[in-house]
Amino acid sequence: MITVKEYTTDQQQKLEEFCSIAKAHGLKNNESLVAMKIDSVKYWVGYYEDKIIAVNGIEQYDDTTWRVAVRQATLPTHHNLLGFKRDFGANSIMFRYVQRAGVEYAHNQGGTNLIVSTNLNNEAGPWMTRVDKHVKRFCDLGIFTYVETKELNYVCRMCTG
C-alpha cells in the first residue's frame, strides 16, 4: 500500500536515502536535498514499505498560479509497482497518488491556475523526455492544456490543469 505524507524535517533521513538511490539512477534533480531545493519547494512523499519511493514538489509561481510538478520522481525500482493498467497514467504512482496531494494543497491556498512543467531533454535524468511525452499525452486527453514552451529555470514545457 502506498501512503502519501507531507514532507517534514523529521523525515529527512528517509528522504536522504531516497536521494542516494535517485543519484545512483542518474536523477540529478533528486540526487540531494540541495538539488531538490528542499528549502524553497514544498514536498509530498510517497511511502511503500516504510521507504520513500516517490516525491513531488510544488511551489507558488505568482498570486494564483502554482507549479505542481517540481522535482517529481519515482524511483525506477518501483515504476512497475502498480502493474500494467489499461487507462493511460493509471499505473503512475506520481499521478495517482503523490501529485494529487500537492494539487489539493495548491487549491486550498487559492491556486486557480496550476502549471505542470517538464524538462525537454535528459540532462536532469534519463527519463525526462519520456515524462515530457506523458504530459503531452495528458494534454491530448484533455487533462492538461498546453500553454507554451519557455525558459523557467531550464527550458521546459508548461501546461495547466
Provide a brief overview of the structure:
Helices cover 26% and strands 33% of the residues. It is built from 3 helices and 7 strands.
Radius of gyration: 15 Å
Total beta strands: 7
Question: How many structurally independent domains?
Answer: 1
Termini gap: 27 Å
CATH architecture: 3-Layer(aba) Sandwich
Please indicate the percent range of residues in DSSP E strands (runs of 2 or more): 25-35%
What characteristic shape results from the CA principal axes? globular
By CATH, the topology is: Aminopeptidase
CATH superfamily: Gcn5-related N-acetyltransferase (GNAT)
- The run of helices and strands is EHEEEHEHEE
Helix content: 25-40%
Helix count equals 3
How do the strands of the widest beta sheet line up side by side? 1-2-3-4-5-7-6
Largest sheet: 7 strands, mixed
CATH class: Alpha Beta
Low-confidence stretches: none
Mean residue pLDDT: 79
Structural class: alpha+beta
